[in-house]
Amino acid sequence: MPIAGKKIAATMQNGVVENGVxxxxxxxxxxxxxxxxxxxxxxxxxxxxxxxxxxxxxxxxKFGAEQFVKMLPDKVFVHCSERxxxxxxxxxxxxxxxxxxxxxxxxxxxxxxxxxISFIGHSVGGLVARYAIGRLYRPPKSENSELSSPNGxxxxxxxxxxxLEPMNFITVATPHLGSRGNKQVPFLFGVPAFxxxxxxxxxxxxxRTGRHLFLNDDxxxxxxLLKRMIEDYDECYFMSALRSFRRRVVxxxxxxxxxxxWRTSSIRRxxxxxxxxxxxxxxxxxxxxEEHCKAYDAEQxxxxxxxxxxxxxxxxxxxxxxxxxxxxxxxxxxxCSRHRFAAHSVIQVKDQSVHIEGEDVIRHMIDRFLx
Length: 371
Description:
Elements: H1 3-14, E1 16-18, E2 21-25, E3 31-35, E4 46-51, H2 62-71, E5 76-80, H3 93-110, E6 116-122, H4 124-136, E7 137-138, E8 160-161, E9 165-172, H5 192-213, H6 225-228, E10 232-233, E11 236-237, H7 238-244, E12 247-253, H8 262-266, E13 287-293, H9 306-309, H10 313-322, E14 327-332, H11 343-346, H12 352-355, H13 359-367
Parallel strand pairs: 4-5, 4-6, 6-9, 9-12, 12-14
Antiparallel strand pairs: 1-2, 2-3, 3-5, 7-8, 10-11, 13-14
Helix pairs in contact: 2-13, 3-4, 4-7
């Protein structure tokens, strides 16, 4: 049998080949997707790690992963994580972040040809990815790193993530500023009494993850986790890692997302939310606003007023910290869509048969992706 034929046979034994895309599932439920043009994943040197949200699974990113591989053949190797599947998403952002970091290390050890890495996280998955990169980050010329290079190579003079060059860090409907406060969780209708009760009981439903989202965790007297994640804290290089990416992008629903509010997902104050209009772009009909925000230092960031901006001091600190790096902000609207009330899932195309209206968001993501 010719070499190419042997490769095809081996690939089909280990995975499924369909329409130029090969996919395989591991025993722990994670999902790998790559181009099968040459039936050899070694041609792809860019690892794209996709992270699902709360109570989710690797299948949530199935459509997105396949579109990436179809549009960027032999360029990317997509790994849909499920080390934190289902009820494991209730264990806390830090615990999930540690698991994801370990998962990435194990994957890179098995694929020494990789040289670049990108992350795409949906909902809480974006926070988990932010935690994981803080653990994976290796400072320039650092000799002490708990997570070493997967191929045992000499220290890279540049900062890396697990020995790989950071490229794109993308979040989709992620509560970067937490979920407490005025209208950060839209289904609470912005009623202060509802939001106060939710903050008090959220841990009964979503356990440690709920505490992290509502910023009321107090681990051994430490600041809330999301506040720790706006700086390099202890042995976690949260902000250095985030800064090391060539691009940082947030996709946000401007409305009808009843889980994550526009302000927290787009890292803005109320006064900074843009006025948007229906798009006339046929290629991306649901993209209604795009903005490139430059980085600001602490002195340039205006303090957030509780009275004037509907937010609290801690939320303001999170916003100020995250604004110290530049972001591309992409605002999305499904207000005319049949499934607009499921915007939180449509923006990800969680289920292709139901949420396909969000495919232009995935296409927009791929068209601007640094390869």
